[in-house]
């Protein structure tokens, strides 16, 4: 617990120092922080509750589109739109999970892809709702206290707050009753039921929390892009990126998704000139390496080694 | 009368496209039935077949059907290699592990194609592309007919292999009960390698048959086809070949009829909707018994 709080302080410090150290790479910084937040939020469902979703791009899309349409059509300030988006995302997760949590393992994963694809087709085809395939453009945003929301630095701090908030949530979760219920359901649903836990209820809560948090990041992402296209925001490969970031970093660990985001977004940046738009190649290679050699992810494997060493030492006396 | 003819026209198109979906689905269901692997790279193998035909057409001017033997052999070897290196070590892990591993393979294939051939979509133009055969008032396109023919031959050959040869018997035994098969002396590791090779070869064959019809883009076509293949095999009932054929034909019809009579913008959504409904309410498939066999 102390270690986790220290980690949050460290992230805050690094985040505050980043704009001074690398003022030219703010967009990369925002992307790392957003992916860290999304992957951590994904991990609440995918890692702590063990339900691998490949449909989280839907919630990113909901967040971004609520901000854009709120600003353009209803003159709504982004903070209100984000609140609405969170409510909508949680409602969708409630419905979605209620429908599909009777499926297990890979079947649940397949169903999330199917639902996310249907949502993407709706976003592309329903012009009255989303502006259709051509997309929407955010032209104006309000300026609270004279802060320009289109400014990259502002967006960086927003993304930092988002990542800190989500990781803070998971730090709290890791020691809470709910966190233990999630892990019990992940390990064995029947045993969890025998201990008086309702697995579907617990999974639904995890899905709603995960989707709501993802939508907040989606809102920030929408402001960063300012031009939204449904094939990008609701895209299967965005869902895949979010999930793989968390899995490569370490599922069910507090810091794994952040480590994954730094590693993958950073690597994407380093190899930008070599691979151009084929940067998902890195995700493919790393997920294979992780599955074959580090089955619990980078942070998970480090944790396992540390625990083994501590145990060996205590056993020696 | 005109409506009847257009209905018949749509039905015949749906049936023939469904035949190709069936060929894709059969490979996937074979792999699932024997190895219990959710193969997420299946659509990318189809795309790889498309690019094989494209490459030979561009370099040597071959008709896509000439490159069929090359694509089948390459697919078999590639599948064998992937099974040995990636899938064999994780065969006893939870299902999710193989799903994630094949997802990684899918990303590697798609992005390697993107790096090699660039992002623009590719197709092969054949001289007989616009030819049709009249069947009463209905006109059937020659390339669809050829694709359907390939499907029938390939699935027939597969049926022969599975039900009329000793090796086919060992494949079916492994699918039914891996431990039991090992106990009677079947080398199940070899069976699994060959099955993954066969599945990959089937996918690449389907790709070659599809290239005169469809455009191939490196990273997107694969994902779409993987989804379709899953729709096909869940529709019929996982792990059974006859069911995958029925599922493929059904998906082809649902898509064509949905596009013609409801809305063509949602063409890809109809299959997914049916897929969800079946997963949720009849997970053993439309024609399913709960026992899964090849």
Task: Please give a structural write-up.
The complex is a heterodimer of chains A (317) and B (294). With 317 residues, chain A is mostly helical. Chain A has 16 helices and two strands. Chain A has helices at 2-21, 26-48, 57-73, 78-100, 106-125, 127-130, 152-174, 177-187, 189-194, 199-225, 230-233, 236-249, 256-270, 272-275, 280-293, 297-316, and strands at residues 136-137, 227-228. Chain A has a two-stranded antiparallel sheet with strand order 1-2. In chain A, α2 runs parallel beside α7 (152-174), α8 crosses α10 (199-225) and α12 (236-249) runs parallel beside α16 (297-316). The longest helix of chain A has 27 residues, at 199-225. The two termini of chain A are 25 Å apart. Chain B is mainly alpha-helical. Chain B has one domain (14-91, 102-115, 131-281): ABC transporter involved in vitamin B12 uptake, BtuC (Orthogonal Bundle). Chain B is built from eleven helices and two strands, in the order ααααββααααααα. In chain B, strands 1-2 form a two-stranded antiparallel ribbon. In chain B, α1 runs antiparallel to α10 (241-261), α5 (142-164) packs across α6 (166-176) and α10 (241-261) crosses α11 (267-281). The interface between A and B is large, with 40 and 41 residues.
| CATH topology assignment of chain A | ABC transporter involved in vitamin B12 uptake, BtuC
Secondary-structure element pattern of chain A, one letter each = HHHHHHEHHHHEHHHHHH
Proportion of strand residues of chain A: under 5%
The major β-sheet of chain A equals:
2 strands, antiparallel
- CATH architecture identity of chain A: Orthogonal Bundle
Going across the biggest sheet of chain B, name each strand in turn: 1-2
Average of pLDDT of chain B = 85
Counting structural domains of chain A, the number is 1
Rg of chain A over CA atoms, rounded to whole Å, is 20 Å
């Amino acid at each position: 617990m102390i270690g986790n709080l220290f980690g949050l302080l460290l992230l805050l410090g690094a985040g505050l120092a980043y704009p001074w150290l690398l003022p030219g790479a703010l967009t990369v910084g925002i992307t790392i922080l957003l992916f860290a937040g999304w992957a951590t939020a994904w991990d609440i469902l995918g890692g702590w509750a063990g339900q691998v979703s490949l449909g989280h791009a839907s919630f990113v899309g909901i967040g971004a589109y609520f901000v854009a349409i709120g600003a353009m059509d209803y003159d709504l300030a982004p903070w209100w739109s984000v609140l609405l988006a969170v409510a909508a995302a949680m409602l969708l997760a409630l419905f979605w999970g209620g429908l599909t949590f009777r499926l297990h393992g890979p079947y649940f994963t397949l169903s999330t892809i199917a639902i996310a694809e249907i949502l993407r087709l709706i976003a592309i085809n329903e012009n009255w709702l989303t502006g259709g395939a051509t997309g929407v453009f955010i032209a104006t945003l309000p300026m609270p206290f004279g802060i320009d929301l289109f400014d990259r630095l502002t967006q960086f701090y927003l993304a930092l707050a988002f990542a800190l908030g989500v990781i803070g949530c998971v730090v709290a979760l890791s020691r809470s009753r709910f966190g233990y219920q999630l892990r019990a359901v992940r390990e064995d649903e029947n045993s969890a039921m025998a201990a008086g836990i309702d697995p579907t209820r617990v999974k639904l809560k995890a899905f709603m929390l995960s989707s709501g948090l993802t939508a907040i990041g989606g809102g920030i992402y929408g402001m960063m892009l300012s031009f939204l296209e449904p094939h990008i925001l609701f895209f299967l490969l965005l869902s895949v990126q979010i999930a793989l970031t968390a899995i490569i970093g370490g599922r069910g660990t507090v810091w794994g998704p952040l480590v994954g985001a730094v590693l993958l977004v950073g690597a994407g940046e380093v190899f930008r000139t070599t691979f151009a738009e084929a940067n998902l190649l890195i995700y493919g290679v790393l997920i294979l390496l992780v599955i074959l050699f580090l089955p619990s992810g980078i942070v998970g494997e480090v944790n396992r080694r540390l625990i083994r060493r501590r145990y060996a030492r205590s056993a020696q006396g | 009368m005109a409506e009847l003819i257009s209905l018949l026209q749509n039905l015949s198109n749906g049936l023939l496209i469904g035949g190709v979906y069936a060929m894709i689905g059969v490979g996937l269901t074979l792999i699932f039935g024997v190895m219990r692997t959710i193969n997420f790279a299946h659509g990318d193998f189809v795309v790889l077949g498309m690019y094989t035909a494209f490459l030979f057409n561009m370099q040597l001017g071959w008709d896509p059907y000439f490159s069929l033997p090359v694509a089948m052999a390459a697919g078999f070897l590639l599948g064998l290699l992937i099974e040995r290196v990636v899938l064999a070590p994780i065969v006893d892990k939870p299902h999710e592990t193989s799903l994630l591993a094949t997802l990684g393979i899918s990303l590697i294939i798609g992005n390697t194609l993107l790096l090699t051939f660039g992002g623009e979509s590719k197709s092969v133009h054949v001289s007989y592309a616009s030819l049709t055969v009249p069947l009463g008032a209905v006109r059937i396109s020659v390339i669809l007919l050829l694709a359907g023919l390939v499907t029938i031959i390939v699935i027939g050959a597969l049926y022969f292999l599975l039900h009329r040869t000793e090796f086919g018997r060992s494949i079916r035994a492994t699918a039914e009960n891996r431990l039991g098969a090992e106990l009677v002396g079947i080398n199940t590791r070899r069976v699994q390698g060959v099955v993954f090779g066969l599945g990959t070869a089937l996918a690449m064959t389907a790709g070659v048959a599809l290239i005169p019809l469809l455009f191939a883009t490196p990273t997107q076509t694969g994902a779409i086809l993987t989804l379709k293949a899953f729709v096909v095999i869940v529709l019929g009932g996982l792990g059974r070949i006859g069911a995958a054929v029925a599922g493929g034909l059904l998906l082809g019809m649902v898509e064509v009829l949905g596009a013609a009579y409801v809305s063509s913008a949602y063409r890809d959504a109809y299959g997914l909707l049916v897929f969800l409904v079946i997963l949720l309410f009849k997970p053993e498939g439309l024609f399913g018994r709960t026992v899964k066999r090849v």
